[in-house]
Each structure stands twice: as structure tokens, then as C-alpha cells.
Amino acid sequence: MTSGEQIAALGASMFARGLTFGRTGNISVREGDRVLVTPTGASLGALDPGGLSVIDAAGNHLDGPKPSKEAFLHAAVYRARPTAGAVVHLHSTHSVAVSCLDGLDPADVLPPLTAYYVMRVGRVPLLPYHAPGDASLGPLAERTARDHLAFLLANHGPVVAGGDLSAAADAIEELEETARLFLLLHGHRTRPLDSEQVAALRDRERTPR
Ligand SMILES: O=C(CO)COP(=O)(O)O
Ligand SMILES: [Zn+2]
């Protein structure tokens, strides 16, 4: 499958499962110096694999239709994370709900409820509200992405990187399910993983298997 076909297949799957809706969300894949990104105003449910936009890591539009208004965010993540091969942004409902909560710890929005959340996502910070496409968020996004795989845009939604598209998809789905669990558990006495359990999982993830 070409990268364009992979992006279209993932978009269709995310859309079909209600992980994003309408004409929201955007997906990109890095290929060397070029980044293939979904066009602005596209439905992730109906992407044309041959009709994607091309930008560079500075966010410049190189080819194809006008890129996503969040292309600058994707470019910022690629500059910050040399190992990132893909970036996904969704308006996934439970993650967006968490991004609207008052009183979150902006350094770490969700507790480590499950092992897979720790293994696939890690610590997720909250970036302050900016209107969609407001490129003044770029420098903070770039600094944040250096040591975070994922971040949450306040009153908006998640942005998640991965070594490749399937890793980015796994991580953003894990984040969405953890946000759902967090909201489901509201009002229940909850026992997240303790710091030793979290540290052991982080060590294990660093050990090549
Ligand atoms: O999610 C979106 C904005 O945050 C969708 O915008 P684009 O259609 O420009 O990608
Ligand atoms: Zn958005």
C-alpha cells in the first residue's frame, strides 16, 4: 500500500468507528523530506489516496490541494521528533470532553489507569486553547512534542505521533479509550497504577524485545 492509500484506509476506519466526524481531524505521513497530509476541509471518511497535499517539515505547501489548517502542527511534531513517521489529530469525543474539563493538571491530563495507556501513550499534557489553524501554537507544540508522544489541545482534541501510521493510530485510540474510562469512572473510587508499576512499564518499553 502507498502512504496515500494507508492514510485513506485509516481515515475511513476512524470515521466509520465514530472516532472523528464531519470534516474534522487530519492525518499525515512523513516520507523523507516530504510530508503527505490530508487536505483542508476533507472528510476522513472519504479521502482520495491520490489527492493528498504535500508539505515540508517547515510547513511549506509543496504540492497538491491546500493542506489541513493544522499542517503547521504536524510539521512542528516532525521537527521535534526525528523518529516520528506519522501524526494523527482527531475530534474523538471522550478526549475532546476531557480537553474541556476545568481543573486538569496541564502537565498530565489523565491518570495511568491501565498498562496499555502507559505503554502506548505515556504522559499527555494540555496545550492552552487556540483557534483551529492558529499557527502561533507552533513553537509550544514543537517544544512539547520533544518529550511527549501525544498532547491535548484545550477545548479541541488530541494530536498524537507514532513511528508509523499504525503506531500513531494505536496510540490515539488508546488515548481515546482512556479518556472514556476516566469519564466512566467519575464519582467511583479509582485505583490507578502506582508509580512503581508505571516505572516498570516504562523500563520494559525501553528494553528491545
Ligand atoms: O480538525 C480540524 C481543525 O482542527 C480540521 O481542519 P482541516 O480540515 O483544515 O484539516
Ligand atoms: Zn481539529
From TrEMBL:
Cofactor(s) named in the record: Zn(2+)
Organism superkingdom: Bacteria
SUPFAM superfamilies xref list: AraD/HMP-PK domain-like
EC number: 4.1.1.104
Lineage of the organism: Bacteria, Bacillati, Actinomycetota, Actinomycetes, Pseudonocardiales
Pfam families: Aldolase_II
Catalytic activity: 3-dehydro-4-O-phospho-D-erythronate + H(+) = dihydroxyacetone phosphate + CO2; 3-dehydro-4-O-phospho-L-erythronate + H(+) = dihydroxyacetone phosphate + CO2
MF (Gene Ontology): lyase activity
Protein name: 3-oxo-tetronate 4-phosphate decarboxylase
InterPro entries documented for this protein: Aldolase_class_II_sugar_metab, Aldolase_II/adducin_N, Aldolase_II/adducin_N_sf, OtnC
Keywords attached to this entry: Carbohydrate metabolism, Lyase, Metal-binding, Zinc
